[in-house]
């Protein structure tokens, strides 16, 4: 998902052991020193029930190996939570895996996942590169512009996290309203049923008295 010049990658997905028995992963090709940041949140849903923690890891860069089990790089980030921000600087150029693992609890999970690796900052730096070559006095301006883009990225991710929290609260509110509605309907039907039984009982009593 692209918002203006700031690019934030947004995913809402479901982890289901029947389709993804081990983990769900995303790939990110990063330059060495590039900062990747974002956040994830396990959502409340009618199917999955209350949010349960998920294991989030970042591994890489991917190592070249003929053996598949040895093809993954070192684990750089590991978070176990229902909701958490993350940030890390890539130690080298390469492909990094951003993975969600079930852990011991294999139940279904709905997850909101947002991340960004600052490519907009590279674009701004590249745009000002020629101007800086011609006039070194513009170098502080270049650094300031990159810093502003970095702060805008932080603000945008924080806004997206807030929106997701609002959606989560609205979803919970709708679920509660639906539960209250069904409970009210059940109570109403129960009251009607009791009234019908009482009417039938009284009618039978009256019929019995008439008979005698």
Automatic annotation (TrEMBL):
GO terms for cellular component: membrane. This is GOLD domain-containing protein. Residues 23-154 form the GOLD domain. Pfam families: EMP24_GP25L (PF01105). The keyword Coiled coil does not apply. The keyword Flavoprotein does not apply. Belongs to the EMP24/GP25L family. It is a single-pass type I membrane protein. SMART domains: EMP24_GP25L. Its main location: membrane.
């Amino acid at each position: 998902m692209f918002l203006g010049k700031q690019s934030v990658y947004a995913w809402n997905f479901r982890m289901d052991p029947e389709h993804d028995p081990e983990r769900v992963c995303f790939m990110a090709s990063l330059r060495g020193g590039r900062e990747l940041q974002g956040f994830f949140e396990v959502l409340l849903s009618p199917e999955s029930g209350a949010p349960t923690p998920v294991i989030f890891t970042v591994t890489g860069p991917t190592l070249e190996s003929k053996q598949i089990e040895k093809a993954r790089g070192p684990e750089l980030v590991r978070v176990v939570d229902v909701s958490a921000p993350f940030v890390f600087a890539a130690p080298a150029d390469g492909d990094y895996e951003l993975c969600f693992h079930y852990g011991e609890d294999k139940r279904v999970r709905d997850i909101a996942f947002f991340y960004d690796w600052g490519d907009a900052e590279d674009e701004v730096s590249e745009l000002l590169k020629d101007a800086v070559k011609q006039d070194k006095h513009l170098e502080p301006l270049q650094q300031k512009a990159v810093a502003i883009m970095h702060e805008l990225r932080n603000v945008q991710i924080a806004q997206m996290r807030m929106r997701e929290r609002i959606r989560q609260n609205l979803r919970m509110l709708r679920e509660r309203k639906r539960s209250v509605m069904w409970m009210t309907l059940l109570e109403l039907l129960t009251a009607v049923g009791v009234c019908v039984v009482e009417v039938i009982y009284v009618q039978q009593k009256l019929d019995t008295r008439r008979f005698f």
